[in-house]
Write the structure tokens for this entry.
Amino acid sequence: MTALPHEADAATLPVRRPRLSFGWVRSLPKLPVAILVIVLLAGVLAPLIQPHDPIEGDLSLALKEPVFNGGDWDYPLGTDHQGRDVLSRLVAGARVSILIGFSVVIGAGTIGVVIALLAGYLGGWVDQVLSRLTDVLLSMPFLLVAIAVVGAVGAGVRNLMLILIFMGWAQYARVLRGEVLRIRNADFVRLARVNGAGPVRLMALHIFPNITNTLIVLATLQLGTTILIEATLSFLGLGVPPPEASWGGMLNEGRPYLTTQPWMALIPGITIMLTVLAVNLLGDWLRLRLDPRFRQL
């Protein structure tokens, strides 16, 4: 049988395979992403890229100038009052900030999501109890409570993470509960309920995937807040205990030398500012990207 002309032409056409679109990558805020990538790499690879021991010092090398102020490349950012390499401590501090930041975001986010799903979907007395508990935590001054609790139980990375997780889940619960209330009566949820899906299946497979956009934005914004609070508590001596390196602790150690060696405080201070600013800018970009109300503008 002879093939028709249009059939022969169709047979010789190349097959077009679906292509993944990565156009959104080009719209990423490049400077904030670059800063965050550097901080993340420094935190993850800290033990491999630290030029010197961040804890052990040499008093004979104390207060060496950074390379941009006449120092040498053995200590590019100089040394502190105990002869410890500032660059090595800055990298080690990035590891601490990343560890605490992501641990708090994951822990608080998990608790907040569970509370929001239970309160928003079940409603009734469950919603009343969980909502009042959320209101109590949100009414407390976050930083003051953290300072009081850390002062009572003692400083330390683990204690700090647990306190920040306990104080941080309420924001997730309040915002995500509203999303759950909006979604629980949607047609696809009602259809799944009619088909026999139980509450756990409905919350896990039908409601939770539809609140992930809001969850990602909240998590990004809380990451910057957590890094800033950790630095604040470490500056006050209630966060990461010395001699462990932390950006807030480095800022506090450099405070007495502001008039003679201002770089000791300026370097960790600028690092904190740039990191938190980059996280917040990325969070704003995600909010505009993921919220359909903004995408329609």
Observations:
- Confidence is low (pLDDT under 50) at residues 4-22.
- The chain is about 70% helix and 0% strand.
- Residues 189 and 202 are 7 Å apart (CA to CA).
